[in-house]
Amino acid sequence: MTASNPTLHYIFDPLCGWCYAAAPLVEAARALPGLDIALHGGGMMTGGNRQPVTDALRRYVMPHDERIAGLTGQPFGEDYFNGLLRDSGAVFDSEPPTTAILAAQALGGRGLDLLQRIQRAHYVQGLRVADPAVLAALAADIGLDPAAFGAAFAAAQGAETASHIAASRQLLARLGGSGFPTLALERGGACTLLEPSRYLGRPAQWQADLRARIG
């Protein structure tokens, strides 16, 4: 994990509501000069943990989503609450969007841009972000060349995504993180766990404190 610049390691999942809550903090960190951000997709809803959309799932996630909206002001759309969360044909699977983020990262380091677009598509527009065609459209939305993205997505599918998720989970265990999101600041080869939950809804304070840590 050694890097020349200080590095903010971000262990996330594209379908994690609390990662969506932390998105303004990540964006504030991104604005700090001399700070690198390393993305680590943890595969929260992959394999046997994929979740078909059911009434039970909707009842489970909605109180969390409403709390996130209240704490952070992050938007949630009607097409999500009463569209996607009532779409019994949909499956929450974070493997395809993680593959898409790896592909975007390979194309000029655009992974975080695509993560943000995927989160908006999921939580505001209520789109099925496990659908490769939807992911291709979202990649085009952020300006990625469709053919280049398609090739990068195909290359990242399967073994590469599985290896990335496994490495992310190993990192999470080494850091002693408790789930998603986990953020850790690396300086000089040493990592310090941060507490993003303390800063939800306060990105300017988070940015100022992070700046002081790396200054």
Automatic annotation (TrEMBL):
One of its GO terms (molecular function) is oxidoreductase activity. Signal peptide: none annotated. Pfam families: DSBA. Residues 11-185 form the DSBA-like thioredoxin domain. CDD domains: DsbA_FrnE_like. InterPro entries: DSBA-like_thioredoxin_dom, Thioredoxin-like_sf. This is DSBA-like thioredoxin domain-containing protein.
